[in-house]
């Protein structure tokens, strides 16, 4: 079972809110809508890369794997603090 690594932050400053809206709308200009039909039609090599990336992330970041338990607590902490698992 994978965990959702999202976090929520509430900022009450209207200036920060306006800036976040501007950044979001600017990013939207470069976004491409991916419909369920388009997602299902992605090439096999992309699916394989996604599967492999997910597996590697689970192994390196814990995920209850045997490999992660072999890591010392220092190595595991470095992985998390270094941003690989954040």
In short:
59% of the residues lie in helices and 0% in strands. With 86 residues, it is mainly alpha-helical. The protein is flat, with a radius of gyration of 18 Å.
Question: Which structural traits does this protein have?
Answer:
5 helices; flat; 86 residues; mainly alpha
Mind explaining what this structure looks like?
The protein has 86 residues and is mainly α. It is 59% helix and 0% strand. The chain has five helices and no strands. It has one domain (14-81).
Give the CA-based shape: flat
Strand portion, in percent?
under 5%
Summed up, the domain count is 1
Q: If you average the pLDDT, what whole number results? A: 78
Q: Give the count of helical stretches.
A: 5
Helical content stands at: 55-70%
List the helices and strands and how they pair.
Blueprint: H1 14-28, H2 36-40, H3 44-60, H4 66-70, H5 73-81
């Amino acid at each position: 079972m994978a965990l959702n690594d999202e976090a929520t932050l509430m900022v009450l400053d209207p200036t920060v809110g306006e800036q976040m809206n501007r950044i979001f709308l600017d990013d939207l200009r470069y976004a491409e809508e991916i419909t369920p039909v388009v997602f299902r039609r992605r090439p096999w090599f992309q699916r394989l890369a996604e599967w492999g990336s997910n597996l590697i992330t689970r192994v390196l970041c814990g995920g209850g794997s045997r490999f992660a338990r072999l890591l010392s607590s220092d190595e595991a902490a470095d992985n998390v603090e270094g941003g690989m698992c954040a």
